[in-house]
């Protein structure tokens, strides 16, 4: 079923754009602090005594930008939030290549693309000059300028670029492809948007230990250890030893990307989270029947059970003691790199025990 926003004529959406985001920001000033006019990178300096906003307040301000731009363009807020979050993960993966603007958003548009490849002024804000040199910068807050360091301008610029290809979901995906020229980018944005749409909030970064913390298990850091089956390789993960049938749980909010047999990992399942990290659960004895590829999962949700499958053809089991192999891989845009999950596992385990003890003390 097509969503309401997909059914709106493009001419209608363009008429909305004529009103400008400035009017929306001005009208929001009378609302609550969480929905007040969105500050940009060029907002006036705060007094020395001003309190820095909390992460929750920053998320509320970002949500406000997404909703205002959604009203202006007709694109649902969760699609815009997904673009920003994807860009945020790229900045985290490649901080040296993507300077942080200091604004609320993490969307990075290179100066040459914003102002035009042949424009001698990389900080150009004139709409006419940017258009003349073939730049993509647009005015999103109605001040007559296209400022690459202005959150409203940046969000509106990308929204306008994507919107040019149409208003249906498939058209949105085509617009993403035309902007990123990267199939993985399109997939990630669409995955992230599903999570935001399903939960209607931005703070989806809670984690859980992959096994029930009251279960009988043991683990230590085994990152980089030598492995020989199938050829020399290093161990890209942490092995958590436990008995057959102990529940294996999702560690995050995410989308199930892979489920099935792998010669090395046996019965395994892979989940992508909003940090663009792929969570890999291997050597399972079986899967939770209700979990399928494409499903949304939550922290602590059972996805399978500890086993000893792998190192052979489908169904091979028992070549090693039962355990969960847990690995994490960060998407850098074109490739994925494994990193050591042990510090995260310890942190999630300790956090769960704190919650349990907190409930007992109430």
What is the straight-line distance between the termini? 47 Å
Order of helices and strands: HHHHHHHHHEEEEEEEEEEEEH
Largest sheet: 10 strands, antiparallel
Structural class: alpha+beta
Oligomeric form of this entry? Answer: single chain
Mean pLDDT: 86
Low-confidence stretches: 1-45
Percentage of residues in helical conformation: 25-40%
Looking at this protein, list some descriptive labels.
ten-stranded antiparallel β-sheet; 12 strands; two-stranded antiparallel sheet; single chain; alpha+beta
Protein model, in words:
The strands form 2 sheets. Strands 1, 4, 5, 6, 7, 8, 9, 10, 11 and 12 form a 10-stranded antiparallel beta sheet that branches. This protein has 10 helices and 12 strands. It is elongated and about 70 Å long. The chain has helices at residues 10-19, 21-28, 55-73, 77-93, 111-115, 127-132, 151-163, 169-180, 183-199, 342-361; strands at residues 217-219, 226-227, 233-234, 238-242, 247-249, 254-262, 266-273, 277-287, 296-297, 302-306, 323-331, 336-339. It is of the alpha+beta class. Mean pLDDT is 86; it is low at 1-45.
């Amino acid at each position: 079923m097509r969503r309401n926003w997909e059914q709106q004529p493009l001419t209608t959406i363009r008429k909305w754009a004529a009103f400008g985001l400035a009017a929306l920001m001005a009208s929001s000033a009378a609302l609550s602090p969480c929905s007040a006019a969105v500050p940009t990178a060029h907002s006036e300096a705060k007094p020395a005594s001003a309190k820095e906003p909390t992460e929750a307040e920053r998320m509320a301000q970002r949500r406000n930008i997404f909703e205002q731009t959604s009203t202006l363009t007709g694109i649902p807020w969760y699609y815009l939030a997904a673009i920003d979050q994807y860009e945020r993960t790229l900045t985290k993966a490649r901080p040296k290549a993507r300077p942080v603007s200091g604004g609320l958003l993490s969307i990075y548009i290179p100066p040459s693309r914003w102002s035009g490849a042949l424009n001698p002024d990389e900080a150009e804000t004139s709409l006419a000059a940017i258009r003349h040199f073939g730049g993509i910068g647009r005015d999103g807050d109605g001040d007559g300028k296209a400022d690459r360091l202005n959150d409203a301008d940046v969000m509106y610029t990308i929204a306008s670029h994507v919107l040019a290809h149409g208003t249906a979901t498939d058209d949105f995906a085509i617009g993403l492809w035309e902007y990123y020229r990267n199939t993985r980018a399109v997939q990630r944005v669409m995955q992230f948007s599903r999570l935001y749409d399903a939960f209607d909030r931005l703070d989806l970064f809670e984690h859980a230990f992959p096994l029930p913390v009251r279960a009988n298990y043991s683990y230590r850091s085994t990152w980089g250890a030598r492995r020989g089956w199938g050829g020399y390789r290093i161990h890209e993960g942490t092995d958590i030893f436990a008995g057959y049938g102990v529940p294996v749980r999702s560690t995050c909010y995410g989308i199930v990307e892979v489920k099935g047999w792998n010669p090395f990992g046996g019965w395994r399942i892979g989940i992508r989270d909003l940090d663009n990290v792929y969570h890999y659960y291997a050597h399972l004895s079986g899967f939770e029947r209700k979990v399928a590829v494409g499903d949304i999962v939550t922290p602590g949700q059972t996805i399978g059970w500890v086993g000893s499958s792998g190192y052979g053809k489908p169904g091979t089991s028992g070549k090693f003691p039962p355990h969960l192999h847990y690995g994490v891989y960060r998407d850098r845009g074109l490739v994925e790199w494994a990193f050591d999950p042990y510090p995260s596992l310890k942190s999630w385990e300790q956090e769960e025990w704190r919650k349990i003890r907190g409930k007992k003390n109430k």
